[in-house]
Structures are given as C-alpha cells and as structure tokens.
Request: fold
Amino acid sequence: MHRFYIAFQRLVPIAVTFLALLLPASVGSVVLAQDASDATDLELEVPLWIAELDADEAQTRRAAEQKLIKAGPDASDYLPAILDDLSIEARERLNRVRAEWAKRKAETHVEAQLIRLQNAKTLGEALEAISTVSEVEFDLESAGPGVDPNQSIQAPRSPLNFWHAVDHVLDQANLDINFYGGDRTKLMLIPRKENRPSRVESAAYIGIYRLEPTVVTARRVLRSPELSGLNLNLSIEWQPNRTPIGLSLPISAVNGKLDSGEALVPQTSGETIDIATNSEMAQSEFFLPLQLPNLPAERIDRLSGTLTAMIPGRREEFALDLNETAASHTEDQMTVSIEAVRDADPLREIRVGVELDSAGRSLESHRQWIFENEAYVLLEDETRLDHLGYEVFRQTDSGVGIGYLFDFGAAGSPPPGSKLIYESPTSVAQDAVDFILNDIPTP
Reply:
C-alpha cells in the first residue's frame, strides 16, 4: 500500500502536466498555478477597478466597488501608490472598501485557530506545533531541570483550539501555567501542584477563551436574608496575543440549574459584570453573584452565559521619520501621525496622533489598550531609545493624542535618520461567544 501511494504521488504531476497540454490554456493555468494566477489577476485588475471608481456610468462605479470588496484584503497590496487623481466620490467608495477589508481581517483574527497535534510525539514537538499556529511561545525552562522536552505524549486525533491543545499537552506533562511570569507572546510553564485536577476536565473552551470555576462559596445571613447568596469565582484566560478589550458578562444572559432541579438565578447586582484585561497577563478572575438556592444541592448541573468583547487584530509596526514634516502612516483601520516635536526642557516631547476608523466601543471607556502600545525611537545606527513617560493631550470618539518624552542627550533633538516606532493592533472586531459550564460542586 505504501509503495502504491509513493508511485501514485510520482505519477500525479506527470498526469496533470499531460492534461494541461490537452486542455485549453485557461484551464491548464488554473490547474497548475492557481495561486500565482490569482496574484497576477489582482495585480492587473485592481488598478483597473480603482480607475472604474471614477467611471461615467454609476453602474460601473458600483460594480468596481463590489469587485474590490469581493477581492478581499489581499487586493490592498496592489493599490496604486498615487491616488491623488480620484474624485471625492471615488475616494468615499475606496474608503468603504478599505473599511470592509479591515473588518474582514479583524473577523479572521477573532476566529479560533485550530491546532493539529497528530504528528507530535514529544512534549517539545507538541509545544512547537502550538507555537507555529498561534505565535505564542512557551517558557519551559521555568518548569525546572526535571522536565524533559523529549518525554512522550499521546497526540489527539482531531484538531483542537488553542487552550484545549495547551491543556491536553500540559495534563500529560504534569505542568501548569504561571500567568504572572509571561507576557503578551509567552506563557511560563511550571510544575503542577499535587492536588491540581486535570486542566482539560476543569475547563470550558469557547473561541479564544478558557473558562474555569475556581471557588464556590455560600452564605446565609439570618438577620438579613436578602444578603444571602451563592458566589461562583471563575478564572478566564485568553490567547496571550489576542487580549480582548472591554470584556464583559451580561447578567441577563446568565442562567443555570442545580442537580435538585431548582433554577439558579443571578443576583440583581447590575446589568453586566466587567472583567479586567491586561495585555501582559493572559488571565483574569471575576465572581458571579447568584441567589442562594432554597433546596439543598450537591452541584450546579448547568450554568450558561455570553461573553462579549472587542478583539484587536494583528499587531503592526508603524515607522515614522522624525525629520519628515507631518509624517503619517495608515494600516488597516489605524492612522498614526507625528503632530509635533516640541521642547520640554531638558527633554523633547514627540506628539503622536492615533486615529481608528469605526472605533465603536473600543475607544469609549476602554482606551487602556492604546496606552499600553509600545512606542520608542530607533536611531540610524539601530540604537533604541525608550520614552521616559507620556501625557495624553487629546481624546475623541475616534482617537487619542499622546505626547511621549525622550532624552536625546547633547543633541537635544532627534538626529537625522531617527524614526518613531509605534506598535499596535490596527483593527478591532466585536465578538460575542456563548459558554456552558457543567457539574460544578457546591459547598
């Protein structure tokens, strides 16, 4: 069987080539070089569609806009470098196209990635497979010298999302995670405590999230029965490089049932439970206040709800020449500009404007993610200068103005060839996922 498969593999390219000679040229090109053909088509067609945005016929203009949208974000690589000749209407159409491209890129980033571990035989190979797909690294050295990267693991047959794949591997290697030791791109692994239950059996996996009940407490206040309650503490983790913005749990969507058959009802403590997030630590804890059951129960059979958030897209690097007047760069939905370089004796203040198209809730009360973005100056010789602090001088519905302070020494101002490097997600997409937790023991 194996020899037949190898022989078949060798015959396929020959057969395809032979068929390409017999078939019309257009069919053969699709069979042999689909990807190259798609790129070539976009390179030729995108400039034509851009020109048609200014066509005399309204139908042609509308059709060109739809063709650009349908082509997707890949078409942005083939936009003409100079677009100054476009009319106001054409610019508006192109802005709508770009907004749709950015939305698609952001939505793709929200989708949970599936990780295949079928070919991983060892702990090291499994972690490498997860890193390749997720771009999340693992600090295995912190687990100590007793952890062998070559120890065998049994890989699952089906693809898993990020956290399910991580837990599957850590359970077999008797490892756990120290969230205080990682960052936005790395998880620190540590030995598992003796009584720590299985990570896989303890958690629910929803999109990019991992949700785990950690503590259940009940209290009965005899003099003030209305203060009695059942509190459920939960730990929520997200993929480290995909920190959500404005993560919350609407109370109205929470409902549950005890093994006694009694419904589990949330306390009326507000409309939502807001959950703190930080890009440097991929985990947070919160508690869900519930009404104390009337009947005795040993466990919560089922608890469900909906998590809502906004998910930043892929991080991009903006490099702005500090010696260029009003340097500006746009990537997806974000535009970063140098507004001024001012004296702040003995330092210099670099004023940066950050604008986000279709910002929505991402800039309402959840702006901290923008202030956590990395900003530094890179000199011509690749020397890096970190800022010494910043001040927010403008906040609007669509952006912020931030003044970063730098010490340029005796030069006093940025030397020729200096660039401000600003790293940030360039798009934000709304996300809502439903979760279900089962079999949670009660006190």
Q: What stands out?
A: The two ends are 58 Å apart (CA to CA). The CA atoms of residues 116 and 159 lie 5 Å apart. The first helix runs from residue 2 to 22.
